[in-house]
Design brief:
444 residues; alpha/beta; seven-stranded mixed sheet; 14 strands
């Protein structure tokens, strides 16, 4: 007997903001019977200056903590859900009892995590009623320890046992529970993380992450007009781009899937015909372009230590980093030469500690010179295709020189998967456009 395919589908807040969006989601799920496990977020913004339900819940709970009457604020939240229920035409279903319990728990000041989690919980209830799928409270299957740390082993076992006995289910994202039964939320990217946990627990064939973009873009659309969508990207490439600001998927949502070798398909709820981006462990398919994507961030400073014969001094790099660590800071990148050692750090974090770090370096490694430079940006050019292509760094230099961009630093990792370029903040957008043009526009 042929094994039924299993897809876990997660929908973001913009995909579930109102009844119209819910209908799009329902059509997507019903179009493929293998979409069996659904992970919804809380309703997002319906228009640009709208408020997310999660933010409404936080504000409502703040009133409760202050001892202020929060009844109207909670009613406003209920109105959002009631409008969705009416718009979907769901009969014999209401959230009256759920909101009565929420009111009681808010009055008892049960906690901000509980308050925040109710957006996903309530949307899961609506989704369950709309689809006719069983509802599974994430508090029953997503486990944290008494210190609030996620318990991956217990969750995988508990969730696996629960869902393997169910052909279909709705499991709200973002939260779980501690041993005492209290609700605990993930810190960031919560619904994405829940989706990946569900996919791992049921040994899914594919995890679909539905959002409001048609996959990963090769560059930031705020810098490049209508950038090309990446058709296939590896986990390693995505991690490099995510580190440099690409935020379609949260990093913590990747690891459970990568461990199981489960591919991710990032899709657009508003354009379901678009194939989106496939995120895979590895692939034989050759990318269309030499590079997969460009990411970057502003706001760095560099500390350059110069000392003759430093390369012969055992422990020099460790001592430099220890000085930075002693000030409670992390570093971003470390390019080095024979007699120079540079550390790129977050400028805002560095500025309050700069004099202490300079003094510490003088005491610890006795440099010939320390030079600071501020207002820098780092750009990552990422792509598995660079391994097989000669002259990639040369093309980058040529493009930046033609655009009159002064390169402050360039470094290629040993994996040949990425090249990091340092430029001034003011040249950031110009540099990205120049690199995009030489590798993408010129090949269209």
């Amino acid at each position: 007997m042929e094994k039924k395919k299993i897809k876990v589908v997660k929908f973001g807040g913009s995909s579930l903001a109102d009844a119209n969006q819910f209908e799009k989601v329902g059509a997507i799920i019903r179009a493929d019977e293998s979409r069996r496990y659904v992970v919804p977020s809380a309703p997002g913004r319906r228009f640009s200056n709208d408020t997310k339900v999660t933010d409404m819940l936080y504000a409502c709970y703040d009133l409760a903590e202050q001892g202020v009457d929060f009844s109207q604020a909670l009613q406003n939240i209920k109105d959002r859900y009631d409008a969705i229920i009416r718009g979907l035409g769901i009969r014999d279903f209401s959230l009256d009892e759920e909101f009565r319990v929420i009111h009681e728990n808010f009055s008892n000041k049960i906690g901000r995590d509980y308050a925040a989690s109710r957006g996903e919980y309530l949307n899961g209830k609506v989704m369950s009623a709309y689809l006719g799928f069983p509802f599974v409270d994430a508090a029953e299957v997503v486990k944290f320890d008494e210190n609030g740390e996620f318990d991956a082993v217990l969750t995988d076992r508990t969730m696996g046992e629960k869902l393997r006995a169910m052909d279909y289910a709705v499991i709200p994202g973002f939260y779980g529970s501690k041993p005492d039964g209290s609700v605990k939320t993930f810190t960031r990217g919560g619904s994405d993380i829940t989706g990946s946990i569900v996919a791992k627990a049921v040994h899914a064939d594919l995890y679909e992450n539905w959002t409001d973009v048609s996959g990963f873009l090769m560059a930031d659309p705020r810098v490049i007009d209508n950038p090309v969508t990446i058709s296939t990207i590896t986990y390693r490439e995505m991690r490099e781009l995510s580190y440099m600001g690409a935020t379609v998927l949260h990093e913590d949502a990747i690891f459970p899937l990568r461990k199981e070798g489960i591919p991710i398909n990032v899709r657009n709820t508003n354009r379901p015909e678009d194939p989106g981006t496939m995120v895979v462990e590895s692939t034989c398919s050759k990318p269309r372009y030499t590079i997969t994507g460009i990411g970057g961030k502003k706001g760095f400073a560099s500390i350059t230590i110069e000392k003759a014969m430093m390369n012969a001094e055992i422990g020099f790099g460790r001592k430099v980093l220890q000085v930075i660590e002693n000030e409670g800071m992390t570093f971003e990148h470390i390019p080095s030469g024979i007699d120079t050692f540079s550390v790129f750090v977050n400028q805002k974090e560095f500025e309050p500690h700069e004099q202490a770090i300079i003094a510490g370096l003088h005491r610890t490694v006795h440099p010939d010179l320390i030079e600071l430079e501020s207002d820098l940006a780092l750009i990552a050019v990422v792509g598995r295709g660079m391994r097989r292509t000669r002259g990639t760094a040369g093309r980058i230099f040529s493009a930046l020189a033609h655009a009159h961009v002064n390169v402050k630093m360039i470094d290629q990792g040993s994996s040949e998967l990425n090249i990091i370029i340092g430029v001034e903040n003011r040249d950031f957008e110009t540099a990205i456009r120049a690199i995009y043009d030489i590798f993408v526009i010129s090949q269209l």
